[in-house]
Specification:
Immunoglobulin-like; five-stranded mixed beta sheet
């Protein structure tokens, strides 16, 4: 049963690439992964994955912002090499606390991944447009959300809302859902966190053991996890947890080590 699940996860990632190359149409609000999976779509030494990126689950086309409550926008992207995501507000880069979350983790040129990015919006005005931009190598894809609000908000009110917002539990804003990468390479699993207060990040390995830094595996200052010399034994679910005094949030990445490709 476990082997079947592994095959389905790996095949789902690769199957999505080939459906993209066939110009599959993307739904306005949500796109499900192709369920017609075939075992022969697993990457092999002879198959070279083409570089691509696509937003598999875009944020909603429109989102309602309620004054005093923060809005969470979510964007999922797939790509080879593993994609990174950054956000724009009215065509300008989102800055402030999101700036750290938008750092680009190192990506191996031959890997394949599905990544989730969340943008926490503590304040917004009617008509604001937030854009999720996914990048993999030189490839790029994007999707936008237009904000609508029932009440007009002045810049002064927006500033006050940022200063006096109620603290809450952390939110993991960037993580891989699934990633395939060659055995023997160095892999970085992203885990970026939004928290209004001091927080801690810890990881559990594929056997649910807490990760303590050693010569091969360590948690980076950003919260990302570095795995050097990737092994077949590393296959499985790796879980990042962020915790502050108000609660915690967790995200799980399924890691599938693959055989090195022949040159």
């Amino acid at each position: 049963m476990i082997n079947l699940v592994l095959l389905l996860v790996a095949a789902a990632l690769v199957s999505a690439q080939f459906s993209f190359e066939a110009n599959a149409q993307i739904d306005n609000t949500k796109v499900d992964m192709d369920n017609n999976l075939q075992g022969n779509l697993l990457p092999t030494q002879r198959r070279r994955l083409r570089k691509y990126v696509r937003i598999s689950i875009p944020p909603p086309e429109r989102a309602r912002f309620v004054s005093g409550k923060r809005l969470e926008l979510e964007c999922e992207a797939m790509g080879s090499p593993a994609p990174s995501v950054h956000w724009l507000l009215n065509d300008e880069p989102v800055i402030d606390y999101e700036e750290e979350a938008n750092e680009i983790p190192t990506s191996h040129p031959s890997n394949l991944a599905r990544l989730t990015s969340k943008l926490i919006v503590p304040s917004a005005r009617d008509g604001d447009v937030f854009t999720c931009v996914a990048t993999a190598g030189i490839k790029e894809d994007s999707a936008s959300t237009t904000i609508y609000s029932e009440g007009a908000e002045t810049p002064q009110l927006l500033t006050l809302e940022k200063l006096f917002s109620i603290p809450s539990k952390p939110v993991i804003t960037t993580f891989y859902n699934d990633v395939l990468q060659e055995i023997g390479t160095t892999l970085i699993l992203p885990c970026r966190v939004y928290s209004q207060t001091e927080h801690q990040v810890f990881w559990q390995d594929s056997r649910a053991n807490l990760v303590y830094s050693n010569s091969r595996i360590r948690v980076l200052p950003s919260g990302d996890l570095l795995i050097a010399g990737l092994r077949w034994a590393d296959m499985g679910e790796w879980t990042c947890t962020a915790k502050n005094m108000y609660g915690k949030d967790s995200a799980t990445t399924f890691l599938y080590p693959t055989k090195p490709r022949q040159q």
